[in-house]
């Protein structure tokens, strides 16, 4: 495992260790051990590190949902938490997912930034503004502040909503575009219609570049539709397209796959969504990536 990391990866993220549940297990306490552990693992191997995340509706600390009023959240809880985490992790962070999955489709707590259609800003975004303005205050000047989400990257309503939320943050939290980024999680499937085309990704990245913002591929995994060598080659081709879109864009500096090998993957080994199989052997997608490095 260590071998795979050392030879293939030069950029890392904690899968769970920097989530709010882990970093503030009881209100007001700071517990950065797990998050710092991944950061120092990366640094010791000459890899850079990104922060994921200061807010997600999932993996929240158990004390939070239900016990905090909206105004307490905006005025106290979010600013204190974001400051604590971002300051505590220091400057050696390429980007922070300040907000994870706020554009979307559920009834999650405290509520996402759009309704299910992905186009309509229905909630009060003041907790988003509070998080971003706090992040701007405490992050180092070259750490990008990201909005990170899934099922984005195409010419679709949810991606349009991401741009709308980004503009809202720029306007109402006073975060300059050259500090902002959009993270495209990219949990996709190797099947027609289940991923974004290279040209759609490139168009979105160019739109962000025109604003002065960055584009990041933050959590790529590509689930196989069937366990066949044809689908493994399809997976490799899609992987190559996503990487090309990033390499050819001057504002795409981060490209991360979620989980290093199939047996460790959150989607399960059967999804075979990563670059390395359950024995740690390189799959066609890994060769496709290696050919571009
Ligand atoms: C997942 C982790 O991989 C799992 O270990 C955990 O149980 C749940 O969260 N989008 C995200 C990530 O932003 O934080 C999620 O990670 C995967 C989906």
What gyration radius follows from the Cα positions, in whole Å? 18 Å
Output the helix-strand order. Answer: HEHHEHEHEHEEHEHEH
Distance between the termini: 20 Å
Number of strands: 8
* Shape annotation: globular
- Count the DSSP helices: 9
Largest sheet, if any? 8 strands, parallel
Relative strand content: 15-25%
Within the CATH hierarchy, at the fold level, what is the topology of the largest domain? TIM Barrel
**Percentage of residues in helical conformation:** 25-40%
Number of domains: 2
CATH architecture of the largest domain: Alpha-Beta Barrel
Low-confidence runs (pLDDT<50, min 5 residues)? 115-122
Bound molecules: (3S,4R)-3-hydroxy-2-oxopiperidin-4-yl beta-D-xylopyranoside
Write up what this structure looks like.
About 40% of the residues lie in helices and about 15% in strands. The protein has two domains: about 1-185, TIM Barrel (Alpha-Beta Barrel), CATH 3.20.20.80; about 185-195 and about 220-293, no CATH class. It has nine helices and eight strands. Strands 1, 2, 3, 4, 5, 6, 7 and 8 form an eight-stranded parallel β-sheet that branches. This is Beta-xylanase. It catalyses: Endohydrolysis of (1->4)-beta-D-xylosidic linkages in xylans. Belongs to the glycosyl hydrolase 10 (cellulase F) family. One of its GO terms (biological process) is xylan catabolic process.
